[in-house]
Amino acid sequence: MDFDFSSEEKMVRDQVDRYLMNNCENGVFRSVLEGEGAYSEDVWRGLVEMGVPGTAISAEYGGVGAGYSTLCLVAEQLGAYLAPTPFSSSIYLAAEAIQLFGSEDQKQTWLPKLAAGEVIGTLAVTESTQESTEDNIQVSCSDGKLSGRKLIVPHAGIADLCVVVARDINAGVNLYLVDLGDAIGASPGSVSVTPIDTVDNTMNSCSVQFANTPCELLGAPGEGWHQLKVVYDRAAVLIAFEQIGGARKALDMAVDYAKGRFAFGRPIGSFQALKHMMADMYVALKLAESNCYYAAWALSTDSAELPLAAATARVSATQAYQLCARDNIQVHGGMGFTWEFDCHLYYRRSNYLTLMLGGLSTWEDKLIHALPSGKAA
Amino acid sequence: MDFNDTEQEATFRQQVKSWIGDNAPTYLREELELSGFGSTRTGSYDPLAEAKKWQKKKADAGWACIQWPKEYGGRGATPIESVIWNQEEGVYNKLSGTFIIGQGMCAPTMMSYASEAQLKRYMPTLASGQEVWCQLFSEPQAGSDLAGLRTKAEKEGDDWVINGQKIWTSGAQHSDYGILITRTDPEVPKHRGLTMFFLDMKSDGVDVRPIKQANGDSGFNEVYFENVRIPDAQRLGEVGEGWRVSLTTLMNERMAIGGGIATGFPEIQALVEELHVATGTAIDNPAVKSKLADWYAKSAGLRNTASRAISALSKGEIPGPENSIGKLVAGGMMQDIAKFSLDLQGLGGAIVDPEIARGSARIQAMLMRSPAVRIEGGTDQILRNILSERVLGLPDDMRADKGIGFNKIPSGS
Ligand SMILES: Cc1cc2nc3c(=O)[nH]c(=O)nc-3n(C[C@H](O)[C@H](O)[C@H](O)COP(=O)(O)OP(=O)(O)OC[C@H]3O[C@@H](n4cnc5c(N)ncnc54)[C@H](O)[C@@H]3O)c2cc1C
Question: Residue A262 is part of which domain span?
Answer without folding.
Answer: 225-370
